[in-house]
Amino acid sequence: MSNHDQLHRYLFENYAVRGELVTLSDTYRHILENHDYPAPVQALLGEMLVATSLLTATLKFDGDITVQLQGDGPLKLAVINGNNQQEMRGVARLQGDIADGSTLQQMIGNGVMVITITPAEGERYQGVVALEGETLAECLENYFRQSEQLPTRLFIRTGEADGQPAAGGMLLQVLPAQDEQNADDFDHLVQLTATIKNEELFTLPANEVLYRLYHQEEVTLYEPQPVIFRCTCSRQRCADALLTLPTDEVADMLEQDGNIDMHCDYCGNHYVFDAMDVAALYAGNTGESDQLH
Ligand SMILES: [Zn+2]
């Protein structure tokens, strides 16, 4: 199953429509491990992971996309971040109990979805959408409509395969500058895609999924791109963050606990700095400024 986490792009030869298909197990499991999320939160993170993978695959430049849900409900925050290399991470924060079978609205309460697109170079773009759809996919389709992008449909599934968490999804999008595109043609492809079953998506190779859905169409399937879990945290980043804190605050933390344990919510890594480490950090810092004198 190690090569199961893959993003595929495909193209219909006789329609100006492109597609994406992603299946995820290892990446999804990494995001869930070290956390004790209730089942509905696990499923929602899976949906957001699929969505973020499909969205980042539409980027035409180096950069990353963050999909964030936030509200006043028991699920305070759920966030997935991914880049065009298909490196993904994510986390959820709870502030109340979440019963089995809770809907998106019951979890988030009054809330919004925030989509942040950060190019490696250039302006950051942020879109905010009300959570008006029943499902995450509907909310995302609203986002595509509101931001006046190309007609886009998403199909997202989460569940289990071989006793492991599994998630997958598909995206259909009308190609740019195809004003001749017939809306009925797009609807036809949407209806075919909507028949995808969880089991097919989670277990079959991409070419078989496409054949089952579109056997009467000519479809070109491109080389897949691997999807992986990767957190951007590091000891250096934590050290940099420590150095921005007031020195008396750092001294207080050291005095209370003997060391400073910085914990990354995304991957569960701990970065521990004892008094010696902190002294070395400050020495390194002043060392540099000494050289400037
Ligand atoms: Zn991390």
UniProtKB/TrEMBL annotation:
* Record function comment: Redox regulated molecular chaperone. Protects both thermally unfolding and oxidatively damaged proteins from irreversible aggregation. Plays an important role in the bacterial defense system toward oxidative stress.
Subcellular location(s) of the protein? Cytoplasm
- GN (gene name): hslO
Q: Which organism is it from?
A: Serratia rhizosphaerae
Family per similarity comment: Belongs to the HSP33 family.
Q: What is the official name of this protein in its record?
A: 33 kDa chaperonin
Instruction: Provide the disulphide bond pattern.
Output: 231-233, 264-267
What Gene3D superfamilies does UniProt report for this protein, alphabetically?
helix hairpin bin, Hsp33 domain, HSP33 redox switch-like
Keyword Acyltransferase belongs to the record: no
The alphabetized UniProt keywords are: Chaperone, Cytoplasm, Disulfide bond, Redox-active center, Zinc
PTM field = Under oxidizing conditions two disulfide bonds are formed involving the reactive cysteines. Under reducing conditions zinc is bound to the reactive cysteines and the protein is inactive.
Query: Is Cytoplasm a UniProt keyword of this protein?
Result: yes
Q: Which Pfam families does this entry report, sorted A to Z? A: HSP33
Give the InterPro entries listed for this entry: Heat_shock_Hsp33 (IPR000397), Heat_shock_Hsp33_C (IPR016154), Heat_shock_Hsp33_N (IPR016153), Hsp33_helix_hairpin_bin_dom_sf (IPR023212)
Xref: SUPFAM superfamilies: Hsp33 domain, HSP33 redox switch-like
Q: Which NCBIfam families match?
A: PRK00114.1 (NF001033)
Domain of life of the source = Bacteria
